[in-house]
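User: Structure please.
Assistant: Input sequence and predicted structure:
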Amino acid sequence: MLDAYIAAQQELEPGGRLTHVTAVLRYPPPPPGRHRPDGRVRVPARLPADTMEKVTELTLRLPGQPRRRGLKDYVRSPLAEALTTAIACDKPFDVPGLEDIPPIWTQRAAVSLWHLTVAATLTVPEQLAVLGNLEALDADAENPTELTQILRDGHFAWHHPWRFEVALHLARNLLTGPKRVQNWRSLKNRDDEFEVLRFDFERTDDLDHTLLRGAPKHAISNVTGRGGALVWRARRSLALQAIRNWIVSKPTTPLTVSPPYVKIVHPKAWTSVRVPADDHLPAQVIADAEAGKVLLLSTDESISAWPYLRETGEPVPRFDIVIEELARRRPEEVVELVLLDDPRLADVYLDPALAYDLGFITADERDALIEDAAKRTAGRIETTLKRAENWTPDEHAELDALRDDPERFFELAAEHHISEGVVRPWWVWEAGPTVTELDNLAGAPDRLRQLVRSRGRNWKRQLEATMEAAGRAAIAHGYADPEHLAYYDAECGESDEDETEFNLGGLVD
């Protein structure tokens, strides 16, 4: 059955491929909460790897959904969708609760319904961005048209059970009334009527459009934070695109990357090899790229290999280590991390054992750091036990019995709202900018490898923190604060010694 499904889907153009209404509306919805049974039986799939790969490629992927695994609200079920669609095409059946809605959809019609749903449920920051009001977003660096386009037609959307409830409401209103044939054709063809309706939905307030009256409201869960974070991700995508364009253009001036509002500077001694997009790079440059010595970045007009030394024309020495350590990052993300000179990345916190292995400290210094952290952890344990004296005798005895297992000790304390933790030992490496360290660490490839690895992880955490702050700002103010410098200063700047240790503990490699 799957072989026949795959063969049939491959004959169709992407928008014309078929899907089932249960996949379009994620129906029946998952139960609220986590780890609650939903009555469905899950069985392991024993299929050839290439079959599962084809199924994943050919099934419906709504904007915002990852290709494979994802968070609960974003996850896809390609195998279930493929089987359901194949069965329904062969032997149609009714789904209780969806009897009045067409069972088989084209993927274009499914995405059209989703776009209408998104338009109807825009949060305040999304609506400001879609309507081009960047001044209200404090985000005047982008071209309003680009941001609007990427939010409307790019792969950016937050998911939440409420959105699928609104989608079901819309599907019933559009496809069961007197205009159902016309509306069905409009969804499949994305004609002028579809665009007018989408335009109107984007300007609605609290589902006040005629077709949306009676739709469920999102009183249970505030989704504004997801909207703020989404606008941040869309702006971040444009920022990475700007980095790519900047490198391909052989830059002579610094570039401000926003978000997260940092400056990158191109080394004067570095350059790139650039050719028109319809031309071919020299054979040696292609060999350098295949060997992992340089990155390839392209735009519609040009393609560039970067970085080379301007004086010799050779790849920048040891840049292959950078590419290897950041292999899962996009080329423009590697460019940003290498050229970034940000105080948040200056100090690298290493586990003392790792610092010893890399030759930074002696065995005695390593042991002293570990012993000091253990003593301070023991002190926190005693302090926590004193704070827990008002617990019941049994609870206090249970906590006291865990004093030799600090991790479990503080986990139990946290359940009673005592927020202490294990003191992590670390050694601080005061490293210079990555561009400089590429030369400084010429004879220490292991140190360079660790520097790139640590800064890659740290910068990822910083970006995630700014995105989360955008969500919180959206909830608090109704718009996304894209730069988050005030948030960073407040959260990570001024703090007492213990709080600083607790915050940095999660950054130790």
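The radius of gyration is 27 Å.
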